[in-house]
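so my prof wants the structure for this chain in the tokens format not the other one, which i didnt know existed until like an hour ago. anyway here's the sequence
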Amino acid sequence: MNKPAKKPLPRFATEKAERDYWETNGSTDHVDWFQAQKVTLPNLKPTTKTISLRLPQHLLDSIKMAANARDVPYQSLIKVWLQEKLHSH
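here's what i got, hopefully its the right format
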């Protein structure tokens, strides 16, 4: 069975023209996704979201002391501990 030829990507004069095009057209006319390969992008940083977390003062003080003993910011230590806990289950 012959695969239909893929359409060449159009050239866009502006970013708006490109956005308008992709809002009404799919990529399957232009890309053979069966030929796609996985890539690793090691320099990308994961997006973060700020949250508000209420902790008892004594717990926060203990976390800050533990972080100070390790010479790391306490927020970073909390993230490490949370990640370790997630992976241990």
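also thought this was worth mentioning. The first helix runs from residue 15 to 24.
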